[in-house]
Design brief:
The protein is mostly helical and about 140 residues long. It has a domain of about 50 residues. The protein has 3 helices and 2 strands. It has a two-stranded antiparallel sheet. The longest helix is centred in the middle third of the chain and has 54 residues. The two termini are about 45 Å apart.
């Protein structure tokens, strides 16, 4: 299972790196080409210098992506998983305490009942049965 998750993570990182490199190459070649023009909603952009706000938008997207990848999992971890872990530890401690108190309170009964239980089990143990000769077929009887 761990190998599968590592493989999925590696593939995801390779795809992200490839897309970042492809975007960078497109940006470089598009800005250096004089024949490049881009049309959005009927408005034509001939040079990438007209996209002054694009760097700010890209920075905003990067910050939003980091928040989604780092802050959101940590918030979920500390708001959901940590209280559940604490609750499980408290219930485990209570169960351990109840078992300990129960063992102390019922130890005289256990000491009296244990020899009786072992004796009854010993008396009820079935005797070993011998198998009939027909069911014990050896390798010579195979046809």
């Amino acid at each position: 299972m761990k190998t599968t998750l590592k493989l999925i993570l590696l593939i995801g990182l390779c795809v992200a790196l490839t897309s970042a490199l492809t975007g960078g190459l497109l940006w470089h070649f598009a800005s250096s080409s004089p024949d490049f023009h881009l049309t959005i909603n009927g408005q034509e952009f001939t040079q990438l210098s007209e996209f002054k706000g694009m760097a700010g938008g890209l920075l905003g997207c990067v910050i939003a992506g980091l928040v989604l990848c780092i802050v959101l999992p940590l918030a979920l971890l500390f708001s959901v998983a940590l209280p559940v872990l604490i609750l499980g530890l408290v219930f485990g401690a209570l169960l351990l305490a109840f078992l300990g108190v129960g063992g102390l309170l019922f130890s005289p009964l256990i000491l009296l009942a244990l020899p009786l239980f072992l004796l009854a089990r010993l008396l009820r143990s079935p005797k070993k049965r011998t198998r009939p000769a027909s069911s014990q077929a050896g390798p010579a009887s195979r046809g």
